[in-house]
Amino acid sequence: MRVSQFPLNTLKETPAEAEVVSHQLLLRAGYIRRLASGLYTWLPLGLRVLRRVEQIVREEMNRAGALELLMPAVQPAELWQESGRWEQYGSELLRLQDRHQRDFCFGPTHEEVITDLVRREIRSYKQLPVNYYQIQTKFRDERRPRFGIMRAREFLMKDAYSFHVDAGSLQATYDAMHAAYSRIFSRCGLEFRAVEADTGSIGGSASHEFHVLADSGEDSIAFSEGGYAANVELAPTAAPPPAPAPSRALEKVATPGVHSIEDLVAFLGIPVTQTVKTLVLEASAEADAPLVAVLLRGDHELNAVKAEKHPWIATPLRMAGDAEIRAAIGAGTGSLGPVGLPLPVLADHGVAGLADFVTGANADGFHLTGVNWERDLPLPATADLRNITAGEAAPDGSGPMGIRRGIEVGHIFQLGDKYSRALNANVLDESGRERVVTMGCYGIGVSRVVAAAIEQNHDDRGICWPAALAPFDIALCPIGAKKSQRVREAAAALHDELEAAGFSVLLDDRDIRPGVMFADMELIGLPHRLVIGERALDEGVIEYQGRRDPEASKIQRSQLVGFLR
Ligand code: ATP
Ligand code: MG
Ligand code: MG
Ligand code: MG
Fold this sequence. Notes:
The chain is α+β, with helices and mostly antiparallel strands. It is built from 21 helices and 26 strands. The strands form 7 sheets. Strands 3, 7, 8, 9, 10, 11, 12, 16 and 19 form a 9-stranded mixed sheet that branches. α2 runs antiparallel to α6 (167-187) and α10 (300-309) crosses α11. The longest helix has 21 residues, at 167-187. The radius of gyration is 27 Å and the shape is elongated. The two termini are 20 Å apart. It binds adenosine-5'-triphosphate (ATP) and magnesium ion (MG) (3 copies). The site of one magnesium ion has 3 residues, from α15.
């Protein structure tokens, strides 16, 4: 490919709206362009990367025995009403109506549609197990779309759904998916960890998330080299700050007489707006002791506030038992909380923190966005996980534990019969009896992988693509081509030879200064750069520089293909 036929859309300036490096580089290097909040166009260069991720995912899913299909992106409301999620999902669900005023949604996920298919198509245990997948556009009306394609509203997901007659069969497919995901992210050239995740409101017994390790990740994950790993999104990455010395406020909070949040708020003088007060803090009328209730909402900003700016709040939350939290989930309403925290506990951690927390909340920041439970209630699944501290032994005895930031790129779940029961997806078992099928689901954020790869692989000059994801393998840069027909011909011949040898080559045939050419190629991040000019031709060599190499070296022309392999 020649740049004259494949124009680059690089930018000199870093767009101001881009907070994280992957977003900045994807814009600057001309991979994506923003259309509107959370909506991005993939430019030709970007689409090549996306397709490479997709291809790896497809190959490994096929290898693991999954069957590709393609479901509609638009889904009828009736199915979501059957599962109960029309009500529960909240405002992340983009709802629409057709010309007959029938309700639809743009699919954020496809459990309902696939379960509907299976209940119609599959009658007998003999047709199971089956694992269907698709690679398709999803829409989630994220409350806070950000970081470009990392947390977009429209994005590309691989979602797979497996169906089984029994738990043993589900476990076998789940294990196969776990292995396939490990192969996928390894082939992508990414450093990742599979971690235990909360199964949350989706129910089911097992869930793992796959995280690409990167400091900019929104989640905190804990793992030991011995293999133990868990998502501890709520846990602070650093040790919690020491409890502040008791103040007058603390003494009074700990005394009887503060029986409601109104008392507390009045006493503390926290400037709380009605909205924030209602959503974040609530009193528990039934409790004997005064309780402060923290309402957790489907709210990423809230998560971020808790985890990053207010690690103190993670500690009391981790002290509240899972059962307590689960019990507090409004059944069917899709909202979380309240979680009761005894005032003294809160007091131990400083009401000053509470004041910050409340005032730090953005006034319009607490709309209900429905619940994505495994994220919005990010407590780890088992009690052991709550007290993980970096450097200590892991709960399984392996260790020491490390805590790192991660980007969730994949998620696998044993769903059990949540959807199949609600939608009556039954099969006849061996003895001829009707049986509800049991399900697993398996997602990969295909477009998010592109961003995660950059978060992990970049330097101050641009992207450093893992070889498997690069839009082109080789940047071919002729020097002085305008004046030298010899250089032009040599470059064209080398381009064709390398393409014939199976490499994708981007030949820069623009009439620009070498420095500008090199800067562009480094920015877009191609793994190998070859430079040819008159002098190199005289010497019978090619100048080679790997994207991460500190300097160029000379390779004999005759040895080049072997070297690149
Ligand atoms: P998150 O915790 O980041 O909101 P999720 O847990 O809601 O993700 P899942 O329902 O597990 O997401 O979906 C499967 C995969 O889809 C995720 O592991 C992630 O890689 C990807 N994904 C989810 N939401 C987005 C988004 N808004 N933009 C891009 N990719 C996404
Ligand atoms: Mg989510
Ligand atoms: Mg998540
Ligand atoms: Mg998830």
